[in-house]
Design a protein that fits this description.
NADH Oxidase; five-stranded antiparallel β-sheet; binds flavin mononucleotide; 204 residues
């Protein structure tokens, strides 16, 4: 893979990453570049025992439309009809960009680790989730660095079976999160911060 150039320093990029809900389909970054950045993140994000349990599916254009149709129809079956307008409006917002990243963890690898290292059995699913969260942050921040806006969504496990079927994915890939992205067209909401001093203790 070619060198992935960083446009901002690391800490600035961490602070600049926000939940961006106002996104459009205007293609300001090529699909190839997005694929390259995501592949780089998947390759370099750490995992317990270097188990590399994360799996990612990137959906562009009509493929992501299929995803948001699955979410919409799944919700239509369970949300009371008089409340569905708000749900539909949220679906329209989340599907307004040009892609969605799906994050998974391969449960077969996790089961194998549990058998191999039984004394850590209970930890592997926790570490798997932690590692996937790290990957989510890396990809979220990397998309921000490319000038894109993204948010983090969780319609799993409601949509798991349909997603596995639609894209013919291995049954062992468990869906963890969905990240719709696109050209940012609205500012993020004002973010409140608790005093950081109260959240950190330093001893020296
Ligand atoms: C583990 C995790 C789960 C989240 N789940 C959702 C979600 O399901 N839907 C959503 O809109 N935002 C979700 N968020 C986004 C948070 O609400 C958001 O990151 C937080 O309010 C801080 O705002 P910021 O992302 O703009 O910095 C999630 C964030 C994290 C870290």
């Amino acid at each position: 893979m070619s060198e992935v150039q960083s446009k901002q320093d690391f800490l600035s990029a961490i602070a600049a990453r926000r939940s961006i809900y106002g996104i459009s389909k205007e293609r300001i970054v090529s699909e190839e570049r997005i694929e390259e950045v995501i592949a780089y993140a998947v390759k370099h994000t750490p995992s317990s025992f270097n188990s590399q349990t994360a799996r990612v599916v990137v959906l562009f254009g009509e493929q992501q439309d299929k995803l948001w149709n699955i979410v919409t129809e799944t919700l239509r079956a369970i949300v009371p009809a008089d409340q569905f307008e708000a749900t539909q409006s949220r679906m329209n917002t989340l599907s307004a960009g040009y892609g969605t990243v799906l994050f998974f963890e391969d449960q077969d690898v996790i089961k194998g680790l549990q058998e191999q290292f039984s004394s850590y059995k209970d930890n592997f699913p926790i570490w798997s989730n932690q590692s996937n969260g790290m990957l989510q942050l890396v990809i979220w921040t990397a998309l921000e660095q490319e000038g894109l806006g993204a948010s983090l969504q969780h319609y799993n496990p409601l949509i798991d079976a349909e997603v596995t079927k639609e894209w013919n994915l291995p049954a062992s890939w468990q869906l963890v999160a969905q990240m719709p992205f696109g050209k940012p067209v609205a500012d993020p909401s004002v973010k409140e911060f608790q005093p950081v001093d109260a959240r950190i203790k330093v001893f020296k």
